[in-house]
Amino acid sequence: MSRNEATVDLGLAFLLALVFSLPESAGGGGIPDWGGAAVHLRNIGFLAPQALLFLMIIDMRLGGSALESPRGFLRELPGTLLLAGLLTGAGLAVPLVLPAGASAPALAAGQASAVPLHPWLLLPLIALSALSVGWREEALFRVLVPGLLERGGTPKALALAAPLALFALAHLWQGVQGAVSALVLGGILAAARARGSPLRRLALAHAAYDALAMTLLAYGA
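RE: above sequence
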């Protein structure tokens, strides 16, 4: 690779990180009503196109197809479920080690009287929302930015660690506990990527974890 090509890759990695790694301002809806549904529709409408954009850039700049995997989906399923289980275990452990510093704000009067949304209507939105988040974040933080950094001459370990730090910072809207949780879960996913896990496995495991967390947030006790 020429020096100019390496500069392009580093510049593109910096630009993508700068534009798409900014901390978010709101999370998934914690109330199973039309307001919560709107949050998931926003995820689908904004994050799914970003995921497609990242997949296109992966194909163009990193070579090959971002969706390719040496194994079929069914043969990958045990590894995907194992990774999702590891994420779930870590996600449950972090709040035990690092409790949240403040309780959630009380519901506003308007929220208390919100029209409930039947699970059969909300759950498909949760699934699509989780898939949008999982594919978008894994394509960006575990494949695209690390791949561009590595092509630009960055050592592989640093190419994975730098986006991991950005991933944690992008979850600061969830507070310190949320950022630490993102760091731990992102670290598991980055380690899986370093060991050769394909993007599809990372994205689906991430989506499964998010779908469970979103469902518990909406319908849990």
